[in-house]
Structures are given as structure tokens and as C-alpha cells.
Amino acid sequence: MQRLTDKVAIITGAGSGMGRTAAQMFAAEGARVVVAEFDERAGNETVATVTAAGGAATFVRTDVSNEDDARGMVDHAMAKYGRLDALYNNAGIMPEPDHSVVDTDVATWDRVMAVNVRGVFLGCKYAIPRMLEQGSGSVINVSSFVALLGCSVPQDAYTASKGAVLSLTRSLAVQFGGRGVRSNAICPGPIETPLLMEWLLKDEAAKQLRLARNPTGRFGKPEEVVNAAIYLASDESRWTNGAQFVIDGGISVNYF
Predict the structure, then answer these.
(1) Is residue 29 part of a domain?
(2) Domain residue limits at 84
(3) Can you list the alpha helix ranges (DSSP code H) found in the chain?
(4) I need a labelling partner for 197 at 20 to 30 A (CA). Which of 75, 134, 166, 209 fits?
């Protein structure tokens, strides 16, 4: 039996990487998926892969940091499908100039915060009221294992943004859990996405450094994170609220 039959899910950043995998896997479990993506070609490609496999998906061009776009993606879901059961705040950026606070420029900091934090805020701002009207819904926010521990090779804007997402998730869980809307966070470790792999292929030392710290000796795969999101979007998780799912192969418990 499909786990997400008749559910409608918005997935932000669904044009590539973990977002595209999420769209495909959610649809395979019976969800009708709104692919909210800034890159129009990538978003439409995701829709094409979903529909070719027999799933249901539709595309809406979305800059998650723009309030009108965030409102528009929710309006699109309601107009197309009449309800909204899950908001998967997956969109995020990790730009190359993001380093320590002492050498990260203000424009990079602000750009990361706009996408990674304001994007989650705006998605929730417009999705949660719709869920409250229904008396049910699931907010799934992608944080990171770096929200839980410090890093000697810092990306401080990204780290701070993911800490903010984790704290916001807890607040949402307390505010709306009693009214049927659950909020949870997923904290992935390094995942084999095109973005990460392209960077690490260029820097073998950085790749080996990160692998050495992981007890499993490998990076995660997108589907290993999306499986947790499917659980959170499904009725199986109806008493899961305010949780943080750390899916990192054991990095965050490793001390040596």
C-alpha cells in the first residue's frame, strides 16, 4: 500500500539533488507533488520524470526568499489540488564564499539567510494557515548536522542558518501541534548530491577529511534522507512533533 495516497506535498528546491529525489519518491508513494523550484527547466524536468513514472506532479516557479512567490506556491497547490498536507522545506544554498565569520562577506551571509531561513519562514507563513483550516498537516524542515556541532572547516552562514531552522521548527511544533499541524526537522550529514560531489571531486583532501570523520566511511544517499521525510509526511508519524532526525552515518557521535 502506498504511504502517501491522496496527500498533497509542496517540495521546495525540487529541481535537482535531494529535492528531485524527494519529488520522485513522494509521488511513488501516491502523493500529488508541487515542484517549487527557481530554475524553470530543472523544475519541469522533475515533473517530467515523475509523470513518466506514473506519478502526479506540477511545477511552479518559486524563489523561496520572495514573499509573493512563497504565497504563490501555496496558492498553486490549493488551486490545483484543493488541499495541502505536507510542506517539505528542502531548498537551501551553500555558496563557495561562505567561510568563517572573519572572512565571509556580508552579501554572501545575507544571501544564505534569505534562502535558508527566510525561505522556510515564508513557506510556513503561507502553508500553515491552510493546514490549520484542514486540521492537519506536516511541516518538514531540512536543517543539518552542523546545527548540532561546530566545524573546524567552517561555513558559518550555512551553519547559522541551519541552527535557525532547527530552532524555528521547535517553535512551530509547540504553537501548532495541538491544532493538528506537526513540525519536524531532518538533520542530514553530507549527502551525495551533485552540488557536494562536484566540489569534493575538485578537492580530494577535503573529501578524505570528511570521510575519515564518518564511522560508516561513506556519504549518505538522497533516498536515505527522503525516507525519513516520507515517514514524516505520512500518517505513521501522527504523534511525531518537534523531533530532529539526525541522519549522518554517525558523524555527530564520533569523537577521536
Answers:
(1) yes
(2) 8-191+222-246
(3) 17-28, 40-52, 67-81, 106-113, 119-134, 156-176, 194-202, 204-212, 222-233
(4) 166
Write the pLDDT tens digit of every residue in 7-61: 999 999 999 999 999 999 999 999 999 999 999 999 999 999 999 999 999 999 9
Cα dihedral 153→148→191→6 (10° resolution): -150
CATH number at residue 62: 3.40.50.720
Burial class (CB in 10 A: 0-12, 13-18, 19+), 238: exposed
Catalytic residue among 81, 88, 126, 158: 158
Find where cell 510542506 sits: 87
Has 158 been annotated as catalytic?
yes
Q: Is residue 79 part of a domain?
A: yes
